[in-house]
Each structure stands twice: as C-alpha cells, then as structure tokens.
C-alpha cells in the first residue's frame, strides 16, 4: 500500500478490524519512511454486468429502470412492496452470480418475466405484451391459454 503522504511503497499494518456494519475491513497503517499514519478500508466490489441492447449498444445496468418496469406492469395489482423488492433482489442476484461482464437485454427481460409470472399473472401478461411486441389479439389469447390450459370442448 502506497503512503498517501510521501508515496513510499512500504507501509506497515498496525491494526485490523471489521467495520461496525460488517461490510468492510478497516486497517490502520504506518508509513515506514515518513512515519505518518493513515487508515484504509477494504470492501467487496460487486459489479453488475453491462447490458447489451438489441441494437448492439451497451449501457450500465440500472436498478431504478428495472424497478420502474416492474412497477408499471404491477400498477394497480395486489402485490406488496416487499414482494417487489424480493423479486428485484432475485433478478440482481441471478445477474451477479452469472459472473458475466455483459448480458443481453433479452436475458434481463426473461428474468423479469419469470419473476412477474411468479408474482402476478396479469402483470406478467402486461409486461409480455410490450416485451414480446404483440401485434394482435390472437397473441394475447395464446398467452392467456398458457395459464388456463387448453380451451374446453363444446358438447
């Protein structure tokens, strides 16, 4: 660790502690050259993958945009804020645990659809209609039949 005062390359660790929140390691250091003391923190750095859009452009993963998409699909639906937060967390965890540096926007859309299907069928169909660019009523009917099973036969 380089000394922030004299830029000397050798420093000595005097004390190591876990932070109060438990999310970092605090180290008290002393420069062996100028004898000044300073503190460093060691934290986990988790980077979300970059999202590759259909047109090939790349953008940072935006959890605010993801939340807004889910909330739009869930508008006026009986889904709690806690359930929404848990769904968002599951999506983020899947993206992080993939270990990929880049992820296709279509993959993010599929993760969203999977969570909406679990939360609320109407929200799922709302999101799917936009995400899959439904062109006519038949596509809606096919999606609805997925949930209700095959149509009943007339006798």
From TrEMBL:
Function, as annotated: Negatively regulates transcription of bacterial ribonucleotide reductase nrd genes and operons by binding to NrdR-boxes.
Entry-linked NCBIfam families: transcriptional regulator NrdR
PROSITE patterns referenced in this protein's UniProt entry, alphabetically: ATP_CONE (PS51161)
Residues covered by the ATP-cone domain: 49-139
Cofactor(s) it depends on: Zn(2+)
Protein source organism: Paraherbaspirillum soli
HAMAP family assigned: NrdR (MF_00440)
Family classification: Belongs to the NrdR family.
A Pfam entry, by short name: ATP-cone
Keyword hit for Repressor: yes
ZnF unnamed: positions: 3-34
Cofactor note: Binds 1 zinc ion.
Name of this protein: Transcriptional repressor NrdR
Key words, A-Z: ATP-binding, DNA-binding, Metal-binding, Nucleotide-binding, Repressor, Transcription, Transcription regulation, Zinc, Zinc-finger
């Amino acid at each position: 660790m380089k000394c922030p005062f004299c830029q000397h390359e050798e420093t000595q660790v005097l004390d190591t502690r876990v932070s109060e929140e438990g999310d970092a390691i605090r180290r008290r250091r002393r420069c062996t050259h100028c004898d000044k003391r300073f503190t460093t923190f060691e934290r986990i750095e988790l980077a979300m993958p970059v999202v590759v859009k259909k047109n090939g452009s790349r953008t940072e993963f935006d959890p605010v945009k993801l939340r807004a998409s889910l909330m739009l699909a869930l508008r006026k639906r009986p889904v709690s804020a806690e359930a929404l937060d848990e769904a968002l967390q599951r999506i983020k965890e899947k993206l992080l645990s993939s270990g990929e540096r880049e992820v296709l926007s279509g993959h993010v859309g599929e993760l969203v659809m999977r969570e909406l299907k679990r939360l609320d069928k109407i929200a799922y169909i709302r999101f799917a209609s936009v995400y899959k660019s439904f062109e006519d009523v038949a596509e809606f009917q096919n999606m609805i039949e997925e949930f209700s099973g095959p149509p009943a036969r007339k006798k």
